[in-house]
Each structure stands twice: as C-alpha cells, then as structure tokens.
Structure to design on (121 residues):
C-alpha cells in the first residue's frame, strides 16, 4: 500500500509508515504545496495512494463526488504528531488494508478507528 501524507501533516509522518513496510511520501515532495484538495485527491487516485490527512474536507469531497477512490485516512484529534499517533495510524493501515485497497474512508482518533466503504451515501 502507498500512503500520501497531506500538506496539513508534517513531513515527519513519512518515516512511520515506511518503517512498517508501506511506501510513503509527503505532498510537498510530489506536488504544489498550494494545490487544492481536489488536485491532491486526483493525484492520489491516479497513482493508487491512500491519502492521509487531518483535513475533514476530504470526506465531504468523497461524498459529493460519490467517489470510490482514493481511500482516505483522516485523523480526528488535536495532537497529530507522529510521536502520539504513529502506532495508531500504522495499526489502522494494517487493520483496514483490504478495504483501503478497494476504497474506504477511515476515521481515527486516539481511542478508536472506523471505516466506511466508498462510495459514501
């Protein structure tokens, strides 16, 4: 699985999924830092990346477009540092691997994670 960390997350996020065996890049290394969310989603979809973000707008974009890709993992907590959440994010990547491959929106916070299969209704 390939993971794209959104601009609203630190590039420090890239090593955590890489250490767990996932390919990972930060948007700042592959795209325009000022790009619109729709451009980031398009890039991730075309290259089969799971978009990892702290931006709740991506769920809305998926729902409005009735899209089946890209899969999105959204963090719903205030402290989004790898020191606090890396183990939780890697666990979610592993737990939801099969649905992320097919298309899903995974929401996680410090206590739980859940997946919704795409397209969202």
């Amino acid at each position: 699985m390939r993971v794209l960390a959104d601009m609203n997350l630190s590039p420090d996020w890239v090593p955590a999924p890489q250490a767990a065996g996932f390919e990972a890049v930060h948007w700042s290394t592959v795209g325009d830092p000022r790009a619109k969310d729709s451009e980031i989603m398009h890039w991730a979809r075309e290259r089969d990346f799971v978009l990892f973000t702290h931006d709740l707008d991506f769920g809305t974009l998926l729902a409005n477009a009735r899209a089946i890709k890209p899969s999105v993992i959204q963090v719903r907590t205030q402290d989004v540092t790898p020191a606090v959440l890396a183990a939780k994010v890697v666990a979610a990547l592993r737990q939801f691997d099969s649905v992320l491959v097919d298309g899903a929106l995974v929401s996680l916070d410090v206590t739980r994670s859940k997946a919704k299969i795409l397209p969202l209704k």
Notes: The helical segments are 15-19, 27-30, 37-47, 57-65, 82-95, 97-102.
